[in-house]
Amino acid sequence: MGIMIKDLIESNDLISVPNSKHALPAKAEDLVMLAEEEVEQVTLPVIDISLLTSGSVDQRSQIIEDLRNACLHWGFFMVTNHGVPESLKEELINSCMKFFDLSPEEKSVYDGENASDPCILNPIVCGTNFNPASESVSFWRDYLRILMHPVFNSPAKPEGLSEALSEYGERSREIMKELVRVIMEGLELEEEDIEESLELNSGVQKFSANLYPPCPQPELAIGLPAHADRGLLTLLIQNDVGGLQIKNKGKWVAVNAIPNSIMVNTGDHMEIFSNGKYKGVLHRAVVNNKKTRISLVMTNGPSTETYAT
Questions:
Q1: CATH class for the domain made up of 5-308
Q2: Cβ-contact 297, 283 below 8 angstroms
Q3: Rounded to whole angstroms, how far apart are CA atoms 247 and 251?
Q4: pLDDT per residue as tens digits for the range 81-114
Q5: What is the per-residue pLDDT for 202?
Q6: Cα–Cα dist 34/54, whole Å
Q7: Are 296 and 207 spatial neighbours (Cβ–Cβ below 8 Å)?
Q8: Residue 1 above 80 pLDDT?
Q9: What region holds the Fe2OG dioxygenase domain (predicted)?
């Protein structure tokens, strides 16, 4: 198994990004050269999902309109009153942190090379002596990916991770299904069409834990380069360390979660299903030299049969 960034940091007194064969060429938009204050901080639209079932007719209509605008103009929004206890979110974050704290030998069990493996630990230690002429940028992320549904999987360690994953997986799947139904309602599609076309109950659900340790040269590295997600909707929770940036109206903006919320964004399959109306939005993760950031991402897509078609 390759060396995890977290393990590398703890075994060395790093003062620079190390050399590595994994340095990748980057587009200009992937090179994080701006000071943090030069990236505008924005507040995403907030959707109170409880009003979809407990609000008045007018309130529900307003939420549908707000969700339509959020998907159309941002592709990202915050969901509040979602029914996921803060205690569960904290337990899951802490359990994932403990997973990355396991010894290299314990983590090597999940060193998978086959993309179809249910649990894959994908260490990416990407470093280079930065040379502007080479237009290269370094990855700075440790990554665990788990297939959650239709068949549930989980690492055996640490204790409590499997239980937290299972409960959060079920709750987040219900949130996803409710949001998809309402989004499609806003597109004036029938609920029966949604269920038949997407087969949400047997849909694919993938969980990713992304660990971004402090980087000695954050201006020469990136946690995750610009990309759009696959699937219908992605749900994200994180600790209190910022680093997510999205591209909106041609420029990068920084976003942070508000308390007691879950961040949601549209993916490529939503773009297809909405006939191009709701785009899969480019986003990236930047790193810092002071604090560890962890983000937990639940990607939800249609069934594998729908993927195939």
A1: mainly beta
A2: no
A3: 5
A4: 999 999 999 999 999 999 999 998 999 888 766 6
A5: 79
A6: 44
A7: yes
A8: no
A9: 200-302
pLDDT of residue 197: 67
Q: What is the mean pLDDT of residues 176-200?
A: 79
Rg (CA), the chain: 19
Three-state secondary structure string covering the chain: CCCCHHHHHHHCCCCCCCCCCCCEECCHHHCCCCCHHHCEEECCCEEECCHHHHCCHHHHHHHHHHHHHHHHHCCEEEEECCCCCHHHHHHHHHHHHHHHHCCHHHHHHHCCCCCCCCEEECCEECCCCCCHHHCEEEEEEEEEEEEEECCCCCCCCCCCHHHHHHHHHHHHHHHHHHHHHHHHHHCCCCHHHHHHHHCHHHCCEEEEEEEECCCCCHHHEECEEEECCCCCEEEEEECCCCCEEEEECCEEEEECCCCCCEEEEECHHHHHHCCCCCCCCCEEECCCCCCCEEEEEEEECCCHHHHHC
Cα 296–300–301 angle (5° rounding)?
150
Residue 195 pLDDT: 59
Through-space distance between the first and last CA atoms of the chain, rounded to whole angstroms:
36
CB burial string 250-262: b at 16+ within 10 A, e below? eebbbbbbeeebb
Residues 6+ apart with CB under 8 A from 242: 254, 255, 256, 293
